[in-house]
Design goal:
Layout (H helix, E strand, L loop, with lengths): L2 H11 L3 H6 L4 H11 L4 H18 L1
């Protein structure tokens, strides 16, 4: 795969090229999720937290 295609794919998926190539997340990838949560009110944030807790529990 050409480098410019990797960059385009990373932008489309909103992940880093590092993640595409290595599978390891970097701070920018984590920041993406943090930015999504900023617009939520307290009730919405509580719902998201419960969902994340359930997902993490299922993955263990």
């Amino acid at each position: 795969m050409r480098i410019d295609n990797i960059v385009k794919l990373a932008k489309a998926l909103q992940v880093s090229t590092d993640f595409l190539l290595t599978g390891e997340r970097i701070d920018r990838d984590k920041l993406y999720f943090s930015e999504k949560l900023q617009d939520l009110n307290d009730e919405q944030l509580a719902h998201v937290e419960r969902i994340v807790d359930e997902c993490v529990a299922m993955l263990k």
